[in-house]
Each structure stands twice: as structure tokens, then as C-alpha cells.
């Protein structure tokens, strides 16, 4: 069901259908892994009725929110078991939830995440690993794992996520969805539970390009421009052949391949991005956790704890190198956007991973593709790319502003 289908239901029917889908579209184990909370049917019916009166552009469209974003009187766990013990239950909705609510969209619940959003695979030892709804045994990707699973399974047509190092882009690509991430340090991410404030962004998923255009139009606005838009596609190293071929073909709808000089300039400039990303995130994540981390050490996912604890092994030279790398990548983006309107990159180096393939090596392969836009703090539209295997990857369409005319133009190219 798309946005319009939901909007055509009565409030009671919408609430009933949402609950029916929550228990039929996911197995019990995957319901636990993906859904932190679904509001009671009676309360949802009231919310749908209220939304209809508002007549907002998304009135009656149900959505789920990643459990990093505060909702009044609901505890925020951020994929952990203990966050409400050290952080008070919010008494008001966070900025992002307020903004989405103002469009008339109906909050139906919250979704689980890779613990504290510190992971790209959607694994969570507390609630269960999120699996691809159409390919059990493969990950949805993360950290916005519950949100992407809910949209991919058809529970809701719209879900909120966040993206620090790819947590909207990667799950969207692996689950065949559309994703949009905004900019770092904007108001909608400012009061969410942080991973790395330098890179954290708000974002969302939809199942199709038409609904994505409606969501972007309602939330940030769409612009058009009466000139040809200039962009290029860069084939990145380390991408599986099947994915590289499919992404190259899909990118032809948007832009030619970069000339040799531009490609060399970008690849050289992006070289420090992965190390700069990991070091900066380690430093900033520890700042968010340091007041309680040692006390709750045994209640962290051991893998997440290891990532948090990495900060203590960082040298001053590594920190200085990360700052230099961050500056280098940001200057490169400034230079790029003097000539181009957008850059297209593969969103993932491979199809959705199996549990056994969720390795450090593959995590770094993913971050190699996503870190450049993360360091730039840039908006990215992700569109799905089908693979011959039936799985999917995606394209990152990187722009310099959420209202770039490239966004509307690109979605038109991918609207069926």
C-alpha cells in the first residue's frame, strides 16, 4: 500500500490494517527484532481521525520512528536494554517527530536499531538480528534496521531513520527501497540520541519514488530548475562485479562516467575518509557514553563495547590525522560542487550480507563507499538497483543541499 492507499482508509480501518500487517508480515522473531513498540489499535484510530482533520499533505500516512528519536512519554532505548535508566523518559516529542507530525502523518510506533546506532549490519543481541523480509538469513543492514524492515515488509509506507555512516543508504539499497538523508547538525537530528554529532543526520525510507517525492515535498520542499544539471558517476574500487555492472547501467539514467582526471581527483581525495570517519566516531561516541559506560559495561553488546572502548587506544597522531582527513574531504567536496551539481556512487559494494558475512572486512568495504558523503555532511538520495540474483544494491545521489533540484529530477528518472 502506498501513501494514497492508506489515506483512503477510514481511521478505524487504517488502525486495524496496520495491526494486521504487524503480526502477519513479519515472523514473531522478526517482530521482536524490528518493532520496539506499536501503539494500541484504539489509540491509533484516534490518531488517524485527528490527522484527517489536520488536512496536512501527509494526513493519514502511517509511519514508524527509529528509536533514537524521542516520542513524548515513551522511553528511548536506542537498541539497548538500559538507556532509560540513565536518560529520562522524554516529556515531549523530539524535533523530527514534531516536524513529521505537522504534515499530518501518523506515528504508529518505534523501531529497533543496531545498538546505539553503532553498526551497519542490523545485528542486535538483545532483540534479535533484523533479516531481509524477502531473503531470510540475510541482513536488512543497519543501523536503521527496524525501520527499513517495516517498510520493506509493507507494515508502513514510510519510516524514519538516521544516517551517520550509511544507516539509511545501506539498508535502503539492500532492501530495495528509496532512502533520503539530510545534513549533519540540522535541527531534526540535534535532539536525537547521538552516535557522532559531526556526521549524524536524519532521514527516512519509502517503498517507491512517488511516495519519496511526496515525503520530501512535505518535509523539506522540492525545487526545479530550468537548466541542465551536471553530474558524474564514479566506479569505486572494491565493488563486486555484479553490483558494479548494475550500478553503472543504472547510473546512465543520470550522468556519464567521470572523466579520468575527475575520477582520480575524487579517489585520491576520498582516500583518508574511512580512517577519519572511524576515529571521529570513536571520539564522539565515547563522549555520549562516558558518564555511564563503565558502570553498564556488561550490558552493552560486546561488539559495540569494543568499538566504544577503541577511543582509549587512539594516539594524538591518529586524532590529528583524522582532523586533517576530514578537512581534506570537505575541501574536495567544495571544489567538486563548483563544477558539478551531483555525484553518483554505488551505495553498497555487495548485495545484502548473510550473518556469516557480517565481518569487519565487509563493514569497511561498505564504509569506503559511504564515508565520503558522511564526512561532507551532505544530503544523499538513495535509489534501489536490481541485481540479476534478485537481490538489490543502490545508487547514492550526493547533492549539496536537501532542496537541490537534482533530487526532484532524479526521482522523476526512477518513477515507474
Question: What would your notes on this structure say?
Answer:
The protein has 416 residues and is an alpha+beta fold. The radius of gyration is 20 Å and the shape is globular. The mean pLDDT is 97. Helices cover 43% and strands 14% of the residues. The chain has one domain: Amidase signature (AS) enzymes (Alpha-Beta Complex), CATH 3.90.1300. The strands form 2 sheets. A 10-stranded mixed β-sheet has the order 1-3-2-6-8-7-11-12-10-9, with helices on both faces. Strands 4-5 form a two-stranded antiparallel ribbon. A hairpin with a 5-residue loop joins strand 11 (380-386) and strand 12 (392-398).
Could you list some keywords that capture this structure?
416 residues, alpha+beta, Amidase signature (AS) enzymes, two-stranded antiparallel ribbon, 12 strands, 14% strand
How is the topology of this model organized?
Elements: H1 3-7, H2 11-24, H3 28-34, E1 35-38, H4 41-54, E2 62-66, H5 83-86, H6 95-101, E3 106-111, E4 131-132, E5 135-139, H7 145-152, E6 158-163, H8 169-175, E7 178-181, H9 187-190, E8 201-206, H10 209-219, E9 231-233, H11 241-251, H12 260-270, H13 273-289, H14 302-309, H15 316-339, E10 342-346, H16 360-376, E11 380-386, E12 392-398, H17 405-414
Order of helices and strands: HHHEHEHHEEEHEHEHEHEHHHHHEHEEH
Number of domains: 1
Helix content: 40-55%
Low-confidence stretches: none
Overview in brief:
This protein has 416 residues and is α+β, with helices and mostly antiparallel strands. Helix content is 43%, strand content 14%.
Amino acid at each position: 500500500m502506498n501513501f494514497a492507499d492508506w489515506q483512503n482508509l477510514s481511521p478505524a480501518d487504517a488502525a486495524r490494517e496496520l495491526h494486521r500487517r504487524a503480526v502477519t508480515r513479519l515472523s514473531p522473531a522478526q517482530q521482536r527484532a524490528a518493532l520496539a513498540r506499536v501503539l494500541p489499535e484504539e489509540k491509533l484510530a484516534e490518531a488517524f481521525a485527528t490527522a484527517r482533520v489536520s488536512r496536512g499533505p501527509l494526513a493519514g500516512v502511517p509511519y514508524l520512528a527509529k528509536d533514537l528519536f524521542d516520542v513524548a512519554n515513551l522511553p528511548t532505548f536506542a537498541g539497548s536494554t538500559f538507556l532509560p535508566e540513565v536518560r529520562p523518559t522524554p516529556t515531549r516529542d523530539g524535533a523530527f517527530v514534531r516536524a513529521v507530525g505537522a504534515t499530518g502523518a501518523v506515528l504508529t510506533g518505534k523501531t529497533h536499531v543496531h545498538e546505539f546506532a553503532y553498526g551497519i549490519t542490523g545485528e542486535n543481541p538483545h532483540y534479535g538480528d533484523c533479516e531481509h523480509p524477502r531473503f531470510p538469513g540475510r541482513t536488512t543492514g543497519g543501523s536503521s534496521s527496524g525501520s527499513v524492515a517495516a517498510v520493506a515488509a509493507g507494515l508502513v509506507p514510510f519510516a524514519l531513520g538516521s544516517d551517520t555512516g550509511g544507516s539509511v543508504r545501506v539498508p535502503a539499497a539492500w532492501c530495495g527501497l528509496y532512502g533520503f538523508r539530510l545534513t549533519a547538525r540540522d535541527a531534526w537530528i540535534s535532539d536525537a540520541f547521538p552516535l557522532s554529532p559531526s556526521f549524524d543526520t536524519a532521514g527516512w525510507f519509502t517503498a517507491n519514488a512517488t511516495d519519496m517525492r511526496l515525503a520530501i515535498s512535505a518535509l523539506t520542499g522540492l525545487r526545479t530548475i530550468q537548466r541542465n544539471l551536471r553530474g558524474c558517476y564514479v566506479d569505486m574500487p572494491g565493488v563486486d562485479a555484479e553490483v558494479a555492472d548494475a550500478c553503472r547501467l543504472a547510473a546512465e539514467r543520470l550522468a556519464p562516467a567521470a572523466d579520468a582526471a575527475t575520477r582520480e581527483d575524487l579517489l585520491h581525495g576520498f582516500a583518508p575518509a574511512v580512517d577519519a570517519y572511524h576515529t571521529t566516531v570513536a571520539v564522539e561516541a565515547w563522549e555520549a557514553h562516558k558518564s555511564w559506560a563503565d558502570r553498564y559495561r556488561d550490558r552493552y553488546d560486546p561488539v559495540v563495547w569494543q568499538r566504544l572502548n577503541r577511543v582509549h587506544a587512539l594516539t594524538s597522531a591518529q586524532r590529528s590525522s583524522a582532523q586533517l582527513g576530514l578537512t581534506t574531504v570537505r575541501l574536495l567536496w567544495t571544489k567538486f560542487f563548483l563544477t558539478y551539481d551531483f555525484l553518483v556512487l554505488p551505495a553498497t559494494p555487495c548485495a545484502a550480507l548473510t550473518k556469516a558475512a557480517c565481518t569487519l572486512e565487509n563493514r569497511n568495504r561498505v564504509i569506503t563507499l559511504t564515508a565520503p558523503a558522511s564526512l561532507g555532511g551532505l544530503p544523499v538520495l538513495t535509489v534501489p538497483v536490481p541485481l540479476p540474483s534478485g537481490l538489490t544494491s543502490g545508487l547514492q545521489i550526493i547533492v549539496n543541499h536537501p532542496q537541490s533540484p537534482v533530487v526532484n529530477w532524479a526521482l522523476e528518472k526512477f518513477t515507474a
